[in-house]
Amino acid sequence: MEYFLENPSHLWYLIAGISFVVELSIMGLSGPLLFFAIASLTTGILVSVGFVDGWQGEILTVGLLTAVVAAILWKPLKSLQNSKDKTDDSSDMIGLQVPASSEINATSGTIRYSGIDWQARLADEANGAAISEKSQCEIVGITGTTMLVKVSALK
């Protein structure tokens, strides 16, 4: 402990390292601890160059930097987390003509393919026209486990 009293910048580096490890291993880059870790690392650097002195100044600096880092990184990290729900247009199922096993609308429905009922909903390009049960439809995209379909051109 005496070592960290003599070298406070090393204490901030240690806190930053532990915070990064916990953030990445347990919290999965969700944010709050990441902001604190970046602020702790920056404070350690500022203490090393002599810009910040005394434990009160160090704690104040960590607090202020955490708020600044959070304000700067909040939107980019949020958009990164929300980008997982993109439509897959590379699947082998895209372009297949399949029957609807229940009515398909903009929010729900099912199709039948390879003996399995798959969750489905209308694709944006379907113009909101519901697809009735047993009608042919075409798979145009996949979002997660939901097939995006439109009325089949082949009737």
Secondary structure: elements and pairs:
Layout: H1 2-6, H2 8-27, H3 32-48, H4 55-82, E1 97-99, E2 110-113, E3 116-122, E4 136-143, E5 146-151
Helix pairs in contact: 2-3, 3-4
Strand content: 15-25%
Number of DSSP helical runs: 4
Spatial arrangement of strands, main beta sheet? 1-4-5-3-2
Globally, the shape reads rod-shaped
Quickly give the structural class: alpha+beta
Record field, number of beta strands: 5
Radius of gyration: 26 Å
Mean pLDDT: 84
**Termini separation (Å)?**
78 Å
Major sheet size, sense and barrel closure:
5 strands, mixed
How helix-rich are the residues, as a percent range?
40-55%
- The low-confidence runs, each spanning 5 or more residues with pLDDT under 50, are none
How do the helices and strands follow one another from N- to C-terminus? HHHHEEEEE
Structural descriptors:
155 residues, alpha+beta, 4 helices
Task: Give a written overview of the molecule.
The chain has about 160 residues and is α+β, with helices and mostly antiparallel strands. It has 4 helices and 5 strands. The protein has helices spanning about 1-5, 10-25, 30-50, 55-80; strands spanning about 95-100, 110-115, 115-120, 135-145, 145-150. It has a 5-stranded mixed sheet with strand order 1-4-5-3-2, with no helix packed on it. Helix 2 (about 10-25) runs antiparallel to helix 3 and helix 3 (about 30-50) packs antiparallel against helix 4. It is rod-shaped, with a radius of gyration of 26 Å. The protein starts with a helix and ends with a strand. The relative contact order is 0.11.
